[in-house]
Write a structure and sequence with these properties.
The protein is built from 10 helices and 17 strands. A hairpin with an 8-residue loop joins strand 1 and strand 2. It starts with a strand and ends in a 30-residue tail after the last helix.
Length: 332
Amino acid sequence: MTGTVRFVCTSKKKGMVKRPVERIRLQEAHGVEGDAHAGPGHRQVSLLLEADIDDQRALGLELEPGAFGENIVVAGLELARVGIGSRLAIGEAEIEITQIGKVCHDRCAIYYRTGDCIMPRLGVFGRVLKGGEAAAATAVRVVELVERDRIQVAVVTCSDTCSRGEATDTAGPAVARLAEARLDAHVAVTRILPDKQETLEHSLKGLADRGIDLVLTCGGTGCGPRDVTPEATLAVIDRQVPGLAERMRAASAEITSHAWLSRAVAGIRRTTLIVNLPGSERAATENLTAILDTLPHAVRLLRGHTAHADDPRRKQVATAKPEAQPLKVVVR
């Protein structure tokens, strides 16, 4: 999959439109040299498809390159297929896609100037893996494609001892392997954090803002004084999904009565599902296995695909009244 750079843009301040320049230098692990968004984070460079900008122009907006705060405008690339974890070569430089869209907490100058900032919906962000220059007509090539429709998973291990290097995390890697094998998921993020509620809350919020579909936490769900993962989860979610935690406890209780001491919760922050798992490798994989078959449908719903495949709302409404059909029940 290939495309071409049409424009490159920079700005000195965040939240402002960027201005087209002749060329930019992408710095490894930093971003665009001299740009306000450059730095050590995961959103070091931003891209938009020229066709998406042209759609806004067709509405009567007069838009210059950089109007939506994008660093690089590309053409000819199926950017809508490019998911988190994909790698793009831009000339000699290379970037890894780390976020699709973004959350705007306040209206910025871009919104007031254009009336509708498309960056939160259509922007693609990445970190620079290899430096190099880019300018108009620079070739863009997909080095590694992670399809946008794959489930994006983050695994967060919550453990004081593992975070200090005093113990080895086996639950997190096992959960990641299970998600890859059974869900065909792309594990975009793995991290180990101490059992500190504020730190966990910050991490969960950030992962949801990045567009991760499913966050699986491991550990901190028991009755110990440092077990605060449920509290951190409840503090950041908008809605609970109690059935998932109920199903995990019931399945685990068939193995051990200690399952009823689990305080694990599951819930939704914006379009991200967060599920708490136990901290031991065996218990974490057993609990995840108990709910695996429900997760793809949950992700589809959160992505906005709310009509079922056999939902009559998806079919064209006939002018004549349809004949009643007998109810068909299949028992497996």
